[in-house]
Write a structure and sequence with these properties.
82 residues, rod-shaped, mainly alpha
Amino acid sequence: MSIIDILIFFLVIWWPIFFILLPIGYEPITKYDKNTEYVRSAPNKPKILKKIILASSISIFITLSISLLEFYGIFSLKGAFL
């Protein structure tokens, strides 16, 4: 895999993992005031940075695994689609 292939694969894997992690630990805002600009479904503490780091680490692990499998000739994504 070239560097561009690895980067594209990482980004394609990162987005679904990030969206899967978003609802984990969801707590709605309990003190709702009509003067605030938030909706009731807004999370109290979204912890976005934690979820970005977790999604990145999982995606790096998957990307490195697939890259090593392809490097050693055990598995190839290019051969699967041809």
